[in-house]
Each structure stands twice: as structure tokens, then as C-alpha cells.
């Protein structure tokens, strides 16, 4: 039998708290899991700095990737198989794309990417198609298979149905991470009835649709997603951790560019400083490596770098205040911080974040989102917000929030009473 | 109010999947949690290499330590308070000892300790009584308080009741880790009715006893413990990870002692090589640091070190076989491996492990275990195995298991057919 | 100590799947639980006919009542106590009202009440203030205490704070039943973070308010409520069971009024037929008694009564169709059923139901609903829909649904092909 | 396609808290579920009087029967299918026997059977093979099929493999009820890893065996069973409910035989009094009917009957004391009760109960139990207690317990001080 359909003599399973067991019978999947590039995902936390707020959120992208694979496998083997719109020769493509969709994530992705101009989606593609163990295995299927997998993850593949299984507003990726992140943080918000949603999914030529009797289950899923964003992912304390980390990376880059002599040279970061990063350079980075350097930087002579890295490592976070996003406020405070001798570049950070719980592509809309489609009993396709009052109420509604971050004790220690008073007054007005 | 009884204006909580919330109202506890020594526990996994088998078992000693504190807090505030045998002035001592009991754990404790002769219990004491942030805070209670906390953890304190809350055969430590490890591995074995056990615990002058109506709940707890040991903690695959790590550390130490020039000097380990480790040296080590070096070693010129570290990092584990512990078998195979040019020091490992699910100190017994005592309705104290058929059946029953570990593909590649055949025959006989 | 504050020597607990344990320490509460009127709630299902759709939903109002008591007890003992706005002398009043709030529920409340003009709220009052064991116990507190408890349940008591703990849009009643009904049906929709909501509840003179940091938890609770209504409580199959039961009761009453001679006289129902019901008559009714008669009626000579009761007992439900509520459609079908010789009074039922997930009293609004109030960090009170986009979107939005019920096989068996065809055509248009 | 393999156009599901969903695709199974005999199981509680102790334990034999069916369906469709020892033409037989195995259970089985000499196993057979809806459906498969199903349930069928799926020491029946009863009582004891056990079950010609890697999961299952027996099923309070009910039935039978004129004749029981019970008579009985009569009896003139029935209905249970089973003690107390004018036949009950957690048929053993067999990696069959220390320790170990039940306040009210004193002394000695 050709490699992509080859079964192992006995099924392998992983114990998993979300799906109970993850089942692997395909040799191809098993071989991919054993690659060093996939094993590297064990050293990258799924939720970055969120463990600073939710201490049990220490799980990695490795288990999430297995979970997405398992959901796609169940979609195919339990629901789609034997339905006319599903072509089972696409099974290896769907399973590989599901398993590998996060392969290019780096350590503390969001903070790191902003400073070093890396892009995890581009690296996912580069790892899959480059000179890697993963590529060697995919290429055993056929020479163009690795590129096809990358295309599905990039959403450029011609098979829109397979893309929608992994990347849509109700896909295996989101269904896994909402449940998994809820499990590991210990909150109840991420719960929804995935079993019912799976049972009611139907393949069409272009996308996965959901039978209309599943409308309430989808409502519940979208609300879980909304709650997870605002209660967990956007938690201001953990964003405070990101703020610190971001400023650390910024400082270290600035120092390097200024010719600073590090006591301990951050070898792994040099290609990033020089903007000449190979796939192998990228793969050498993970959170254990960054944490090694963060701890080294605590001993550097540069006061800002050593302070920021110490704060992050020992969780001595900035204080935060909600504010209305006003540019004037930020301007005034930036000026006052500077006068007080506190560098606002590193010690005064405004953070904005927003979420669009559900939307779809309409004339004039900026996003590029595919709608969630229901399948009626008369086999018609209807966009879900036309059927659900609840979903209609949140469709296209963007919510923004702003926070200011600064080190409280530095304000307290400002010598000049006028400047100190002015800062405190401005901050009090925000509160 | 004196520091050890000072409450914060508002309670702080941590979301926790095992206890729902961990409640902190005491300033002393809050201050200890914020120390860098306690925060370091976030970088040490509770279950070492077990994530190689149970991929979600990525939780740290940080959350476990909070959990033990929470259980002891509930014992005191919900059950013991207002009972004559409990003296509430011991509350700070009990809470601090609970929180800090694992403070001296190092990275991958068991493997590391064996090679470098460190002892996490001694380091717990050293950190608590040495020049650390934790010590500074404890000393604010009174000058001898840090030593008292260390004495409770060391089981040398005169207050046997407080010791038994944290270190006995049914203590807060075990009750937390069984549940927490089960939660994160995703297995059901760790479940028992802690609420009932807590409700039925009674303080006496010497120890915590359990009302006899809780006997079945204790049986269930001991069985959970037994199952967790044999199904989770002793899982042969994850012990295979320990075997590899142990041989890595051994190799690196041997190389250092032989004057090997490392491409990248493992600075943090030098004090351990030299057996001149300060508390500060010890505290600088954590799993992110060791993982950094493990990845560096993959590029070292020494073939054994680079192979072993690559195997560990990329999870290319040894194969294992059960065997009967026979020294003769080991001797024969060791000899054959040597003849085949495979260094048995690193590539042929026999591993023995045993567990005594419950026992107590009797004349001639080697352990030093306090019995679990039941309190009858007539206020008599009875050792539990005299009351429970199930517990009686496992009391003092030691179970041993043996495994052999070796790299399967090295055997396959042995050139000399006679040696290869002899090895394969011997291994087949074991299976 | 006076009776209402008297504690039992040892706490009693009930094992409960929702709250783990229900704790009773007050003699007054224990005595109330032991009364025959409270024990009767074991024989009345919490969810009436819902077990016909969700087979495990067989739990009684007894456990729900204990659950509401437990939540109010925790509110008081864990959150309110020691806060200035809470007066602990109101504790017995609040606990008794919580425990007894459903005391007047009869068997299959909704169907029964419609036919026999009984009102469970009036009966709750009558049982509490009448000649009952419950009244005797409450009167031991002081002569007017029973009336006070009834007034809280009736929402006429002057203590608005206590009322709001038991009857508001986020009260102990709803928090218990959402979780309990979800547990017993086996669905995930009823989950929300009650622990967080409780922790953030604050008593004021007039009501319970919630700290604004709990806004998302309240959103999640309101969404759980919405989902439970549309996915569980309004499930069309179980409403089909209610439709049948309602028509059974109607038929038996019509027959009695027409002088029909029952083979087995329904003794317990005579006072209801005659509209001369005493409290004792009412208390003799429960679901075991009604089920006894329903099974007797299967053998009655009246074809309609025997058919309807057989259908209910053996779960041979009517078919249902969604429709738009059009009076014209109903009129046409009623006429056609009559022509076909199928009595539309019993065999053609239109059912409308609606839910208002959240609203508050505004000029012109028909409801009498108190808003949910948030407490800001500046101690201001704000109505929740002004703060939450999600809640704002559902505030005052009433959703209606309509279903038609009829016995499918009777349509199939209509002799006259023209009438049969006309009915089938009309029904097909609806679908 | 022949009826027994006919699939419905779309799968039907029941929501179930234990198995999430119960899946029905076979027309045969769906038709059986709709019969009145199967629907009757909704009116018989799974755990009889246990709700008096664990108030949420109100679930019926209906959901348990569906659960056993679902487990057998999964065994076949997920594990056995395509293995040589499994013959898929036995699937309908196995599914029907699983679904119907409890069909003959009557109301409060254990109490009722003792007094009226009925036997639920004989009635299961009688209902399946008699003139019933169930029989009509089974006979559509082929004329002898109903008898085959009955033979499997009776363990007389020649297909030992199918029997062992439903009736053995590790069968679908036990695996369902342990989990289901734990869920509804709210205890944690019933949890074990059914998924793992299912995955490791293998069919042989004679029985289901379990791969040896599942040994610990079986240990855990047997311990769950042991705990559920001693902590839940044998709970002395709920056995006190059985004691009362048993004495009620005894009294009503004695009265009938003595020609007592009931105010309200218990029509449904007359065939039982006369020992002339037809299948139809038996099927008319359920717990709603018995509860109707129990409430009627509260108003009967016979003081013993009205007292006992009132006690049961209103949960005014006897007090209980543990004792050593001594016949002498019982004799002395019986005599003293008689002297005090309290009829010991009804008001002084000794209750003995025992459990054998695991055993197998050996020369001289009284039970007729098949061992649990493990399948080794070398395909050998080994009895489990030879492999497991834990199971070996409980094999064949019978544990007995004794309780005495009596009405406490009747003792208190004895007029003669000598007799009263003597009784109280004897009871105190027991305690």
C-alpha cells in the first residue's frame, strides 16, 4: 500500500485530558510526530506568558497540535467518510495540515515577532518545504505533497473544504484550543458541546457546514470563544508579562545595534539581530533557550535590560490601569515620565487589544472571514447570523480595550514633587 | 498586628484546576510567593521526564506547592480551628512549611541528584536558612522562624502534629500531587474523595488521625496512590527518558573530569563538576538552563554525549524489556555489548523500581513510616490495617519491577553476526 | 440559645453532585427537612416531562430545594457575613425561604395548573401558613415567622435584600437549577463560574449587586440560561409530552363534568374537579399518584382518554412541526381535522413559547423585573446592559417559537382522500 | 436486508451523562426501546431506596439499560469487529440481551421479591418469551430469537462469549452501573478507566479476555466496585429504608391473609397475595403504583401498617446499630421487645450483608463465578489473581456486616423501667 495510506500493525495512543485518547494508526502521522521539528513544539508554551496569571497554564503547542489532528481525524473517520462530498484521498492532506499547522511558532510568538519581524506562518511554510525531517517524510508521499500541506495551512490550496476544516471560524484548531486552554487554566468558560457540533458537521465541495439543528451549539461555541478572549487571553496581568518581554527584546536589540558588549553573548539571537535567519537558526530557538538568556541578562551591566529581565523572570510585573485610548493622555504622560528620568520607551507602555467574536466578509469590511453556514432541513445554506438573534447581535461588533502599564514603585520614588504629583494626578483621573 | 498574623485588605486568589481557587489572605504567604526562589519553581516540572509519555504532564512544582499550601490552609481553617488539640498560633508555621516544602527541588531532580550528589532536602533547608529572599521574609516573623520551618520540612521539629500535616502517609503533599498529576496526565486513577478525608481529619497532640467512618475513603486514597505509582510514575517509557538523561549527565561529568574541551562551556554546571556548590549556584539551575545545555551538547564532538543529548531532546528513546532482575543476564549482556563495540556504561541500562503502598514502623522494618491512625467512635486510636481487609492485604508488601534499556537500532547494526545473534537471543528469552 | 440560632452538636451533610456536599448545622433547617411536606418534594420531578427527551432528567424538586438553601447559606456564611449591609439576624429568614421556595409545586406543575386553576405560588404560601408540620416548626421561631418566610417567597417582604437572594435575575434558585438540570440531562450548557459570581456578590440595603470584575461571569451565566431554555427546557419533544398530559387532564375533567362513570374513581382528583381543594387535598397529590391514575385511565372505556393516557405512559408522542404562529393555518387545519373525524380539541395542538433572557423594568415594559446591578471600583451602581455589549444585545429581546402537534398515524389513516390530501399539503407547506 | 441488520436512515441518539451519547442505528433496537415493557423501566429506580441516603440517586433502570446496550455496542463496533474470534452475526443477539437484561425487575426489587416470592430473572425470561410487545419484535428476527435472547440473559445459551459480555465479573452491566450510580449519587468512587478496559478487551471463543497491559485498569475497576458496595450500596441508612419497606409488605400480606378489610383495596397486589401472578399482572406493577398504595396505607386502621408506611413515605427511619451477628443478642432483645409490647416481627430487625469483591470457581467454592482472564503478550491466558498482588489479596475474601434496626422513640417511651433499662443496656453494649 502506498505510504500515505499505510497503517501500523497496532494503533498507538496518547493519553489526553481533552480528548481522552489521541489515536494514531497511520504510519505517516506517526513518523511526523517523531521528527525533531515536531518534538520542538514541546518547548513552546501554547499560551506564552499566560502562566503568570493562570499558573497551571503551562501546556505546550505539542499537545494542542495533537489535539487538532485528532479532531480532524474524527471529522473524517466518524462523520465525513462515506458522504458524497468527501473524497477520502484527501485524508492524508487534511491530517498532515492539522498536525503541522503550528509548526512555525516560535518562543513567546507575539512578543518576539513584533521585535524581530519574524512571522510564524511564513516559518511554518519554510519548515515544511525546507531541508527538514518533516519535509523528508512528507516528500515520501509524493514530491509536491509538502507544498500542498503548506498551501492548506496558508489557505491558498484549491481544496477549500480541507482548508475550512483547519482554518475557519469554527475549525478544529479553535475547537481544540478553547477546550484545552480552559482545561489547563481551570476555568469553565471554554466548555461547549463539541460532540454535537462534530455530529452535525457536513462536508460540501467548498466548506464544512453545520446542520441547522446545531445552531444553539454553535452559539454556545462562539460565546465560549468570546469569554475565553476577554477573561483569559486578554487578561491584563498576563498582557503585562508580554509588555515586559517585548521591552526586554527591544532593549537587547537596541543594545546590540549600539555595539554593547554582552557579558554572555546571546549566540542564538545573532541571526535575528542581523536579520539573516535560516530555517535552522529559527528552529534552534525555543522557550528554554530564551529563558536561559533572560536569566543571563539579569546580570548584564545595562540597568534597563537587567531590570526588565529580572522583572519578567521573577514576575515583578508593571502595574496597569484601564484608559480610554486617548492619544493626548499618552502624550502628556510620556512627557512627564521623560522629565522624571524614567525612559518611557521601556517603562510606559500603552496596550490596545480588540476582538471580533464573529464576522464575515462584506463589502467594505476589512477582514477576510468566511461565514459560518448552516444547512437547513431543505438543504439550503444560510449564514448563521441571519438565523440566530444572539449571533446577529455580536456579528461585526468589534470591542476594544486599552491599558497603560508602568512600574508603580518608580513613580513613588520620583524625586521632583511637582512631576510626581502631576503623574499621579493624571493616573488617578484614569482610574 | 504582628507580621505572621497580618491579613491583606483583600483576599488574593489563584485559579487552580484542582482546588478551583487557592486563597491567600495572609501577607506573609503572599510575600513568600513573590520571592524569586519560589517563582523559580515555575521552571521545574513536577513530573520531570513524564511528559515524554503523558504529553500533557507539563505542570510545574509551583502549582503543586500552592496546592499543598491550600490543603493545609483548609485543614486548619475549616476543620482544626476551635478543636482543643489545635493551637492556632502554629498556623503560620504549618502554612509556610506547606508552601516551601519543595523549595530545594532542582531540575529533573532524580537524575541530576544521582550524578552530582545533591540532595533536594538539604537544599530546601539551605535555601530557607541561607541568604535568600525567602529567608528575609521568614525572619521578619522572628529570628528563629526560618529554622523552625526548615525543621518541620525535615521532620525534626518537636511539633509532630504539624509535621504529620505535611509529611505522613496521608498528608497534604500526597493529596495534592495525586490529584494534580492525574489531572494533568488525564488519567482517572488519582481521584479520591479528599473532601470527605478532610472533613474527617482530627488533630491530636502527635498527629492527624481520621475518624473511622472515613476508613473506606482512606482505602480509596491508598489505592489511588498505588495505581498512580504503577501506571504513571513508574511508566517504563518515561523512565526511559530518565535513563537517557542520567547517562547524559554522567557523560558530561566524565568528559569534564577527563579535561574535555567543550565547544560551549556549561558555566552553570562547573560548581557541580567541582563539587563546590553555593546556594546561589544551585538556585541558578533550572530546567530551562539544563535544556539549553542539552541542546548545545547535541553539537559537541563527543559522539556519546551528542547522541545521548539528541536522543533525549528529540525523544528518540531506548527500547525496553522487562526482566527478572538476574545479575547473570546483565553480566552476559554487558560483556556482549562491549564485544560489539557499544559502550554498556551508556547504552545498556538496567533499572529497578519498587513501591511499598503502605507500611508502618515495626521491629525489623527498614522504613521509618508512621502508621495511619483511625479514631473510633469510642475515641480509641487504631492502626488502619487492623481495621481494613484491603489495606491489610497491601501492608508491607513491596513490589519490585525491572527493566532493561538499550538502543534497538544499534543492535540491528552490529556487524559481527555471532555477537549480534547472541544478544538478540538473550533479549528474546527475556521477552 | 433561641431556636432559630440553635446549632446541632454535629453538622449533617448530604452528598450532592452539584455542590459536593450540602451542609446543615442549624436545628431549624434540619427540622424543616424532616417534615412530610418537604419530603413530598421527592415525589415531584424538577423537570416534569423532560425525562421523555433527556432520559436521565429524573431528579426531584427535593434536591433542588436543598441546593438553593446551600447556595444562600454560602452567600451568607462565606461572603456577606461581616459586611455592613448584611444583618445576620436575617439569616434564618433567608435560609428558610430558600429551602421552602418550591414547597407548593404540584405534580407536572405547568400542565396541571392550566387545567385545574391551581397556582403553586399560592399553595406555597398556604402550606407555609396553614396547618402543617412546616408551619409548626416555623412558628417555634416566633408567631409571625411563617408569614415572613411566605412574604419573602411572595416578594412582598420589606427586606428587599433577602428577596433578591432568592428571586431575581441572578439568584440562588436559578444558579442551582441551571447547574443541576445540566448535570442530570448530561449537557454542558448549564456550566458557568458560580464560585466567581458568589465571591463577587455584595449585599446592599436593597439587593445583591456584583462587583464589575464579575461582568463576564454574569454574561456567561445569562448565556447558560439562554441556552438551557432553548436547548433543554423548550425542547419540542418534551413539550410534546406536556401537550399530551394537558389533553389528558382536560379530557378527564370534561368527562367528570359530563357525569362519566369511571371504572376506577380518581379519588384524589375529586376536590380539583369540584374546585374545592384544601391544603391537605393538595398535599396528597404527587407524581406517583397521578401516574397511578394515568395507568388506570389506559383501561377506561372512553377512547380519547385511554388513547391519550396510553400515549403518555408509553411515550407514544405526537409528531410536531414548526410553524409561524399564523391563526389562519390553525383555523384551516382545525376545520379539516374535524371533517376527518379527529377531535382537534385533543389531537391538534398549537404550542407557543417565548423567553426573555434578560430585561428590566422600564416605562411601558410589561414585566416586573429588577435589573442586575454591577458595583464599580468607585462604588457606583450600574445596570449591566449599559456595560456589556453582549448583554445589551439580548436585553428586552423576546424570542417566540411555535409548534403544531398532532398524531401522525391518525392522519395517515384518514379515509377521505380529499381531506387527507388537504391536511398533508398544509402540513408540508409548514415544514 | 433482513430485519435484524436493518439500519434506520438516520442515527438516533440519547443524551447520556455517562456515555455522552447513546447511539442507535439499528431498527430492531429502536423498536424495542419503544415498547411499553421497556418504557416501564422508567418507573423503576435503579437503586431502590438509596435515594433516602443519597438524595440525587433517583435515576431509573431505563437509562442503565440503555447504557449497557451502548457499552456492548461499542465493544462490538469499536473493538471486536474484524477480529477472528468475533462473529458479527451475533451482534443482534448481544445488543438485544444487553438492552433487555433488566426487563423483569419489579418495584423495589429486593424487598418485594423476598415477601412475594417473585424472581426478577424469571420474569425477564417470561416477558421476553410471553405475549408482549417485546416478544413480537424479537420474533420478527426469527421464531426462536426471543428464546435465544432469554437464554443469554439466563446464561444458558451456548455462546459463552456473548454471555460474558453481559454477565461476568467485568461485564457491560457492571461497568455501566458503577459509573452511573457514582454519577447520580455524586461520589467519586465509581470512576475507573473504562476506555482503557474496552480498548484492551479481546474476544475468544469462550469469553472476553483482557490484554495484560490492562491489569492495573482492572484492579482499579475491582476496587471501584468494592468501594461502591461498602460505601454506597450497603449504606446502613438506605438499608434502613429497605427494612421498613420489607416490613410494610409483610404486614400487608399478613393482614390480607387474616381477612383484614382495607379501606382502599390494593387491587394491583391481589394476584401477588394469591400467588397467581400473570405476566400482565407483573407488568402493571411499578414504583408509582406501590407508592400510591403506600400512601393509602398511611390512612389504614391497622396501627402497624399505617405507622410503617408513614415512616417509609416521610422518611422517618429506624435507628441502627452495628453488632457482631450474635444470635444470643437477637434472642434476648426479641424477648425484651415482646415484653415491652413492641412487636419484634416489625420493629426489631437484624440485617446481614456481605460481599465477595472477586472470586472464581474452585473445588469447594459455593459460588459459580468465572475468573477474569488476562491475555499475555505470548497469547497465554492467565487468571488475574495470579498476576496481581492487589487482586490476589481480595480473592475469595468475603466480608460480612450486621446491623440491628429499631424505632428509637418507641424504646424511649417504654413504660416499664426495668424492661426499658434492660433494652437500653443491651443496645449500649453493642455500640
CATH class of the largest domain in chain A: Mainly Alpha
Rounded to the nearest angstrom, the radius of gyration of chain A is 24 Å
Which residues of chain A form runs of ≥5 with pLDDT under 50? none
> Quaternary status of these chains?
homotetramer
Overall strand count of chain A: 9
Structurally, how many domains make up the residues of chain A? 2
Structural class of chain A: alpha+beta
Query: Which bin fits the share of residues in helices of chain A?
Result: 40-55%
Q: Please, how many helices of chain A?
A: 22
Global shape of chain A? globular
| Residue-averaged pLDDT of chain A | 93
At CATH level 3, the topology of the largest domain in chain A is Hypothetical protein af1432
Strand content of chain A is: 5-15%
What profile does the largest beta sheet of chain A have?
Answer: 4 strands, mixed
Q: Give, in spatial order, the strands making up the sheet with the most strands of chain A.
A: 3-4-7-8
Question: CA-to-CA gap between the ends of chain A?
Answer: 67 Å
Pfam family, one (chains A, B, C, D): HD
Organism (chains A, B, C, D): Macrococcus brunensis
Protein name (chains A, B, C, D): HD domain-containing protein
Domain HD (chains A, B, C, D): 61-178
